[in-house]
Every structure is written in C-alpha cells, then in structure tokens.
Write a structure and sequence with these properties.
The structure holds 2 protein chains of 2 kinds. By secondary structure, chain A is of the alpha/beta class. Chain A has 11 helices and 14 strands. The longest helix of chain A has 16 residues. The chains are: A alpha/beta, B mainly alpha.
C-alpha cells in the first residue's frame, strides 16, 4: 500500500466542486501538485492533513483513513501551510520546542537541537523570530515540522516569496529528507522548481488530475519543440506541413513541430517565399510551462467571476 | 494534559514579552474602581466601595475573558491554529490551555483590584471569603473564556472579533447587578439582571461579604461552566478550517 492513497476523493463547497474524484498513489518520493489558482491544490492538502473532511471518497496516509483514524494520521504527518506560520514573539528555539513538546517527542531537548542544526539555525536560535529573514523563517518552519520525525511532509507553496538562494537551499533540504525515506507532498506555482525538484508531478485543473508523470516524461509526451523566427515585416498566417503556427508577437513568429531542428530549414524556406527576411531562428525544447498550458484549460472564465461564491470559498478555506 | 500546559506556557511567555499589554490590562479596571467606586455621589448603599468591588472584580474577569478570545484570532492569523489542528495533541487541549491562561490572567488582574480596594478603604476579606471569591471568579472566568474562545473559532479577523466583543460586553455589564442593588432597579432591568450570569458571580461574592455562602448562584456557575466546557469541547473536536 502506498504512503498516500486517495480513491475518488471529492470535496464540494456548496455547489462548487473543488476536488473532483481524485485518485492518487504517492510513495517515498517528492510529489508535486501543480495547478492554476483555485484548482483544488490546497483543498486536497487540507483533506489529506485531516483539516477538512471529504464530501465523498476516501484517502489514507500510511494505511490510516484520514477521517476515521484522523489522530493516527496526525502522528504520521507534518503540515507546513502556505502562509509563514512562526511566532515572532518567541525565539527560534522556543518555536521548535513548542512543537516538540506538543508532539510529545521523547528526549525533546536533544531533538530540538538536532532539527535546528539540520536547518542551519543553531547560531540564531536564541534570537526572537521577529529578526529572522524570510528564508530563515521558512527553515524554522521546516525545523518545527521535522522535530517529530514525520513519515509524510505536506508543504503548501514552500518557496513562495523567497529569493533565489533561499529557494535553492529549501529545495536542497527537501531533497536530503527524501533520501532519508520521507514522502513529500508539495504544491507549487513555480514550474521550473517542480521540473528540477519533483520525482513526479500531477497537474490539477478544476479539481481533476489532467496529467501525472515524471517531469521528463510529461515533456517528452508533448512531442513538440518550439521554433522561433525573427523576421522583418508582418507575416500572414502561414501553413507549413507537419507543424503548427502558434502566432506572432512583435517581430517573432513561433511554430510547434515534432522535431525542431529538422523543421528549421522548412520554416526558413516558407518565410522567405512569403517575401520576409529571416534574421534569426531558434529551437527550444518544451518546458513544464508548455505542458501546463497544454493541459490546463486557459480559455476559462466564460461564466464570469462570481464574487459571492469566490468569497465564500475563501472564507471556508481559512 | 501535557498539551494543555504547553499551550498555557506558550501564551504566558508571549504575554509576558508584551509589557504594554500587561500594563494596560491593569489600568482599566483600576480606573473603574477609582472613578465609579470613589467619585460617583451614589447613596443607595452606605458603603458604595464595598458594594461596587465585587462588580468591578467580575467586570475585570468579563473584560479579561472577552479580550482573551482574541488570542485564538491571533493564532489564526499567525497560521498556528491550522498547524495546531493538524497535531496529534487532542484539539480540546488548545481550548483548555486558552481557558486556563485567560482565567489565570484575569485572576492576576482581580488580585490587583482587590489589593487596591482594600487600600482605598473597602472592608478586608477573611481567608475563607477570599478563597471562595477566587473560586467564584475562576468559575466565571471558565464560562466566559470558554465562550469567547469558541466564538473566535467562527470569526476570521480582529475587526469582527472587536465588534462581537463590543456588542456583548457593555450590555452584559449594565444589565447585571454590578452597579446597583436589585431594589433600586427598574422592574424590566431587574428581570434581566436576575438571569444574567454576571449577577450570579456578583451576588455570590456580595453574599460572602455579609458572611453567607450563596449556594444558589455558586451552584448555577458550576453547572454553567460544566455545560460550557462540554459544548466548547464538542465544537473544538469537530471544527474544520
């Protein structure tokens, strides 16, 4: 049995379906869940961390049902919510100590020192958290979350609002945790991070998983390279066999083709025959961004923005 | 049990770091005692300071408890509340920790009020009277802080909580027997005042000062705090974010 398993997991907020029959199995890996705002990422995490009960379906963590065995599940997991949750009126050590004692960690003093030193916070442990930088606060949160040696770690947007170095450091820490056998379930908006860091990603849209695989395989499944041509003058819409015209922005025209390098000569010929001068041609392999845009329905919002529904949803998510 | 004391200790530590909060908590009831107890030319009892002291004590507990509910709002805004709910520690420990801390803080304030009242010339309480006064204030604190903390579960920000606090504290205080004896109240007020939980506590403490133990209001407070604890525990166990 996988560490995290969901079967037809569903959650409605009134008539609004936030998570729609989700089936997942996550096992000793870094699993990233990606999706546009309001696609159901946080709702999924809240259900898996026993903070929200599912409308339908089941989910289990380490074999314990999230509804029936909620207390057992809470012993196995740690949850780091999206907003930085550290107490600025306490010192770093006091923050971690609080959680160690709440979890009832045996030999808690020793564990606290260990968690602080893993997160490289020992030197500042006795300063008030008020004086910590964003990256240090995030690491402090991880130290809190790790103090009881959880089997599953839930991270909601772990690197939001951090600078590049701090982000890199957080991901290094997450990687070393995975090596020790921890299962890590992470939601993120940053495609490049998911691409580098996650073993597998699931793309979620309107509460449904629309793609699920390793980043490399998702990208190769697109079977598309992007070719960009810089030209002079305005180009009419051109049809070239075996590739798709994607559009023109400024003096740059883009095409999608199965094999980018082989498509380059054909594009050059076609553009020249239209009487355009081609300055530059470049080929780019698809990124997770392209997979995301391909999978997620971006033409949405025909219903308009229902303010009342949106606000009631926000309220419930708090 | 462990969880309760950990939560209690945390709130105590946070409170002791904010000097202004500690000072302000002591100034307000003291002002009431001086301005209402000494300055008002009221003549329906022979010793108004003796009469008003129980009222101010209970009011102090009321204010302390209702302000204490905001602690949970702080935790919510801090993001700690969500983390606490995801802990294996029983959720009601958080509630009991809050009740314990809020009531403890209220009792410290009450102690200062009592000391001031005695200094200003109120009749000094005997040991038994003092012990029972603290018991009554504790029970009353449990009822009100449990209520306030549970209401805070359903309010998401400080503005909302401040509005709730303002709406409930003034009417509760003025419809109680804090400021005047029942026989000088208008008829409609007397009916309300008899059933006001503030009056239970105030009457019980006043009863002590004329040497009788008022079992009825004390009993009512015991029952009320029991019911309150059970209801709030149930709410905390079943809360979702």
């Amino acid at each position: 049995m996988a560490v995290i398993e969901t079967n037809g997991l569903t959650r409605y907020y009134g008539p609004l379906c936030a998570v729609d029959h989700l089936d997942l199995a996550v096992d000793h890996e870094i699993f990233g869940i990606l999706g546009p705002n309001g696609s159901g990422k946080t709702t999924t995490v809240l259900m898996l961390t026993t903070l929200l009960s599912p409308t339908e379906g089941r989910a289990s963590i380490c074999g314990f049902d999230v509804v029936k065995d909620a207390p057992r599940v809470r012993e196995k997991i740690s949850y780091v919510p999206q907003d930085m949750a550290v107490d600025i009126k306490l010192t770093g050590r006091e923050n971690v100590l609080l959680f160690a004692r709440l979890y009832g960690v045996p030999d808690y003093k020793h564990r606290v020192e260990e968690a602080l030193s893993v997160m490289e916070l020992t030197g500042r442990a006795d300063d008030l958290v008020r004086t910590y930088s964003g990256g240090m606060r995030r690491r402090l949160e991880l130290a809190q979350a790790l103090v009881h040696d959880p089997e599953v770690l839930f991270l909601d947007e772990p690197t939001i609002g951090l600078d590049v170095t701090a982000r890199k450091r957080i991901w290094e820490h997450i990687h070393s945790l995975r090596k020790e056998g921890m299962t890590i379930f992470v939601t993120t908006h940053y495609m490049d991070e998911a691409d580098h860091a996650c073993d597998r990603v699931g793309i979620i849209d309107r509460g449904r998983i629309v793609a699920l695989d390793s980043p490399a395989r998702l990208k190769s499944r697109l079977q598309q390279d992007l070719v960009f041509a810089r030209v002079s003058g305005v180009c009419p819409v051109i049809e070239i066999e075996g590739m798709t015209y994607l559009g023109q922005s400024g003096d740059e025209i883009s095409f999608a083709a199965e094999n980018g390098s082989e498509a380059v000569p054909a594009i050059k010929d076609a553009l020249t025959s239209c009487g355009l001068h081609v300055y530059a041609l470049s080929v780019r392999e698809p990124t997770l961004d392209d997979v995301f845009i391909h999978c997620v329905d971006t033409t949405r919002e025909p219903e308009g923005f229902d303010d009342r529904r949106f606000r009631s949803m926000l309220r419930r998510r708090k | 049990m462990r969880g309760i004391f950990v939560y209690f200790g945390r709130d105590l530590l946070r409170w002791s770091r904010g000097k202004l909060a500690v000072i302000s908590a002591l100034v307000m009831p003291a002002a009431w005692l001086v301005f209402v107890g000494l300055a008002l030319p009221i003549r329906f009892t022979d010793h108004y300071l003796d009469f008003i002291t129980p009222g101010i004590l209970v009011m102090t507990m009321l204010t302390a408890s209702l302000t204490g509910g905001a602690l949970l709002i702080f935790d919510k805004i801090l993001g700690y509340f969500q983390k606490f709910l995801a802990l294996p520690t029983p959720r009601e420990s958080l509630l009991y920790g809050k009740i314990l801390f809020i009531t403890f803080r209220g009792l410290i304030q009450a102690t200062i009020i009592l000391a001031m009242a005695f200094l200003l010339g109120a009749t000094i309480y005997g040991p038994l009277q003092l012990g029972l006064t603290y018991l009554i204030l504790f029970l009353f604190g449990v009822v009100l802080s449990g209520f306030a903390t549970t209401i805070a579960l359903y309010i998401s920000d400080h503005d909302g909580y401040a509005a709730f606090n303002a709406m409930i504290s003034m009417p509760l205080f003025f419809t109680s027997s804090a400021l005047m004896p029942y026989d000088v109240m208008p008829e409609w007020l007397r009916v309300i005042a008899v059933f006001n939980p503030l009056s239970f506590a105030i009457d019980a403490i006043r009863g002590l000062s004329i040497g009788m133990i008022a079992w009825v209001p004390i009993g009512a407070l015991v029952v009320l705090s029991g019911v309150m604890i059970l209801t709030c525990t149930w709410q905390f166990r079943n809360v979702t974010v």
